[in-house]
């Protein structure tokens, strides 16, 4: 790895590589803290798999290049990339993870400010050539199809073994709930097949939340991980923000957050209505995400990022998270 990192940094005025240390990871990729003669860098090695063809490196580097202009200082600066080696160098951000218990409105406001900076009229012009986000959805029917595929994939893909019994039972309950929810959302939606107008779409960091943020010593938040970013429905961003598992955002902030996000668009009431309609849809999605560790490709991604992880412990933890979300779903 040291030789590949040296190659990545060869054209940069950072001097010789002094040390390379792996950072703790619970995600999809490997990140290294690289100390060179002149500065400290973050080098990210991106996961590659034959069953997952997404260009994680290109997406993140491209989005961060855009964010450096639209919202300078809010995210790490992109510095260098090597597509052949699936490596990229970024500004190293010093900071600590936020715990759910310490989340306050000031932190949520920082996330709103970042989103709004990415979605000013000038920023949207800068981003006109950026691709859609991973799993972007631009109609209510599209959202339902996306989450429906996840539910069906779990139902068909988790082996029915003794070790998987809790996950299999939960997926059966989830599928029953999903069938009823999808029907209700489809009936409630106005023109569910109509695509969202470009003016109502947003530049989304995707996987947006405090699990992908660091709090610096000066109390400023910096946001990380943009490998799924791009153009998307703001209602999807809202649904993901409030359903993500690692650092849950208090539900009491939902209405204020949605109103602030919606204010960036020409029809804010439509954004608010769609975000409320799709909120339980994205809670189901995150139940599915929690259970992805029972699927081979997703498990391989976790093992790539953290080769020493205990599979059984991880899977038990993820079932508990999925059960917690499932129990919080609204009664139909």
TrEMBL record:
Database matches in Gene3D superfamilies: 3.90.1200.10
Superkingdom of source: Bacteria
SUPFAM superfamilies: Protein kinase-like (PK-like)
Domain Aminoglycoside phosphotransferase: start-end pairs: 24-265
Name of the protein described by the UniProt record: Aminoglycoside phosphotransferase domain-containing protein
The species this protein was found in: Rhodoferax saidenbachensis
Lineage of source species: Bacteria, Pseudomonadati, Pseudomonadota, Betaproteobacteria, Burkholderiales
């Amino acid at each position: 790895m040291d030789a590949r990192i040296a190659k990545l940094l060869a054209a940069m005025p950072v001097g010789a590589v002094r040390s390379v240390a792996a950072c703790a990871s619970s995600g999809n990729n490997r990140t290294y803290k690289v100390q060179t003669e002149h500065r400290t860098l973050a080098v990210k090695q991106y996961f590659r798999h034959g069953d997952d063809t997404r260009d994680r490196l290109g997406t993140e580097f491209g989005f961060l290049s855009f964010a450096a202009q639209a919202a300078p200082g809010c995210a790490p600066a992109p510095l260098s990339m090597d597509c052949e080696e699936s490596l990229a160098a970024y500004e190293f951000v010093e900071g600590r993870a936020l715990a759910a218990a310490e989340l306050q409105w000031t932190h949520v406001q920082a996330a709103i400010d970042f989103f709004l900076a990415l979605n000013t009229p000038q920023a949207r012009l800068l981003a006109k050539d950026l691709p859609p986000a991973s799993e972007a959805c631009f109609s209510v029917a599209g959202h339902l199809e996306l989450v429906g595929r996840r539910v069906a994939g779990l139902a068909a893909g988790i082996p029915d073994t003794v070790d998987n019994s809790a996950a299999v039972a939960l997926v059966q309950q989830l599928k029953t709930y999903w069938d009823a929810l999808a029907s209700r959302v489809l009936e409630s939606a106005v023109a569910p097949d109509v695509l969202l107008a470009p003016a109502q779409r947003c530049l989304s960091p995707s996987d947006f939340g405090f699990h992908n943020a660091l709090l610096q010593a000066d109390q400023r938040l910096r946001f990380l991980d943009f490998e799924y970013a791009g153009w998307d429905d703001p209602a999807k961003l809202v649904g993901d923000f409030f359903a993500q598992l690692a650092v849950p955002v208090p539900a009491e902030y939902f209405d204020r957050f949605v109103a602030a996000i919606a204010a960036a668009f020409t029809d804010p009431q439509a954004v608010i209505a769609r975000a409320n309609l799709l909120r339980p849809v994205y809670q189901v999605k995150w139940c599915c995400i929690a259970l992805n560790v029972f699927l081979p490709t997703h498990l391989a991604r976790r093992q790539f990022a953290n080769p020493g992880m205990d599979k059984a412990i991880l899977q038990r933890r993820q079932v508990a998270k999925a059960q917690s979300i499932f129990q919080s779903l609204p009664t139909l």
